[in-house]
TrEMBL record:
PANTHER family: ARAC-FAMILY TRANSCRIPTIONAL REGULATOR, HTH-TYPE TRANSCRIPTIONAL REGULATOR EXSA. Residues 183-281 form the HTH araC/xylS-type domain. The keyword Transcription regulation applies. GO terms for molecular function: DNA-binding transcription factor activity; sequence-specific DNA binding. Gene3D superfamilies: Homeodomain-like, Jelly Rolls. The keyword NADP does not apply. Keywords: DNA-binding, Transcription, Transcription regulation. It comes from the Bacteria. PROSITE patterns: HTH_ARAC_FAMILY_2. InterPro entries: AraC-bd, Homeodomain-like_sf, HTH_AraC, RmlC-like_jellyroll, RmlC_Cupin_sf. This is AraC family transcriptional regulator. Pfam families: AraC_binding, HTH_18.
């Protein structure tokens, strides 16, 4: 399924989930808008991999920049990850930080970016490099793991001490999390994309005008509800083309495109090839679900 609320599983070896996006076989990857109940740190190791949208704000990712994504914040990525354009992702469980932070539930997260190559962030740059070296090692030593745990604790210190503010009654800053309404609409689209969803019905169900729903949805997700629905359908259709032997007619019905003819026309218009051609010529999906 495509992205909506993401359930993250953490192991017991390290307190934080670490992903170094550096697979040379990846093509263009689009992480659809989603949210999860953890803190995400995104560090651009090198290159210019593309764009991110975090809580309605678009960012062009630059080398040595660090971004902080708070829990339940809607975000998405449109990137090309190669050996020349790498991204490091740290997924931090809330429980690891909330016990250390008295006003965590009133937190305001400063998205960034933090320019890590600034002279004032030499220690941060060193700790990030320790984490990167650990992930690149095929058989990290016990000492390397210990150094990495120390580096992760420094990152936690940075978040708690430098990138979180306490909300005051006078504060106009964005509170923890994105609008629940948008998350509800995204989840509805995600669960019912194979049906004949109408934007007018979504607005009526949520007691909001269609115009207002489209405006705020586009602000946080980057596309209109209709285009998000189409993205979900295409994402699922491509997965089925890659992973199953289902006929094009079956896929068209299963993903909400209706007739095979309609699916053929829309698919060719979007990807400049028909579904069967895409199935045979593409060995890697162009978009993926945010398992990170």
């Amino acid at each position: 399924m495509a992205a909506y609320h993401e359930n993250l599983i953490f192991d017991n070896q390290l307190p934080v989930k670490i992903i170094l996006h550096t697979d040379v076989n990846w093509k263009k990857r689009t992480v659809l808008s989603h949210w999860h109940n953890s803190i995400e740190v995104c560090y651009i190791v090198k290159g210019q991999p593309g764009d991110a949208r975090i809580n309605g704000q678009k960012y062009h990712l630059q080398p040595h920049q660090l971004y902080l994504i708070g829990p339940n914040i809607i975000h998405s990525f449109d990137t090309v990850v190669t050996q020349q354009a790498e991204i490091l992702t740290l997924l931090i469980p809330l429980t690891w930080l909330s016990d250390q932070f008295d006003y965590f539930n009133k937190a305001i997260f400063q998205v960034g970016p933090v320019n890590v190559d600034h002279p004032g962030h030499k220690l941060l740059e060193k700790q990030l490099q320790t984490i990167i070296d650990y992930k690149r090692s095929k058989n990290p030593s016990a000492n390397s793991k210990l150094q990495t745990v120390g580096a992760l604790h420094y990152i936690a210190y940075l978040i708690l001490g430098k990138m979180i503010d306490e909300k005051t009654e006078q504060s106009n800053d964005l509170e923890l999390g994105s609008p629940l309404l948008i998350q509800q609409v995204m989840s509805k689209i995600q669960h019912d994309y194979q049906h004949n969803l109408m934007i007018s019905q979504l607005s009526e169900d949520n007691h909001i005008s269609e115009t207002h729903l489209i405006r705020i949805f586009k602000k946080y997700v980057g596309v209109s509800p209709k285009n998000y629905l189409i993205q979900i359908r295409f994402d699922e259709a491509k997965q089925l083309l890659h992973q199953t032997s289902m006929s094009v007619e079956e896929i068209a019905q299963k993903t909400g495109f209706g007739s095979a003819k309609n699916f053929f026309v829309l698919f060719h218009k979007r990807f400049d090839k028909i579904p069967n051609e895409y199935r045979h010529k593409n060995k890697q999906p162009e978009s993926f679900h945010p398992n990170h």
